[in-house]
Amino acid sequence: MQAQRAVTFHVLQKFHLLSFMSKVLMDEFYHTLECLTDNTGTQVPLFCCIWMNKHFGFGHVLGGVEAATPGKLAVMCPACPCPGVNLPSGWESTPPKKV
């Protein structure tokens, strides 16, 4: 008999904990995993796409994400230096620090 499904120890530990805490049956747990993925883990669940559209302000825009111009779905990185935002004026002429 050949195995038809495989899981990681991380998934088994989650099932083990859920079965003790909330009495989840194995087939219920499997069905939940099946609903969240396409059995390969490569498909993003639909609710994630909807949430991202809403988060980036495209939840009620006609055309949705397809109507977005390049760069509209990008998130500004607060750690990256950006003149006028998180860099002081005259930063170009500041001498480098000596360590």
TrEMBL record:
<dbReference type="Pfam" id="PF18803">
    <property type="entry name" value="CxC2"/>
</dbReference>
<dbReference type="InterPro" id="IPR041457">
    <property type="entry name" value="CxC2_KDZ-assoc"/>
</dbReference>
<protein>
    <submittedName>
        <fullName>Unplaced genomic scaffold GYMLUscaffold_60, whole genome shotgun sequence</fullName>
    </submittedName>
</protein>
<feature type="domain" description="CxC2-like cysteine cluster KDZ transposase-associated">
    <location>
        <begin position="2"/>
        <end position="41"/>
    </location>
</feature>
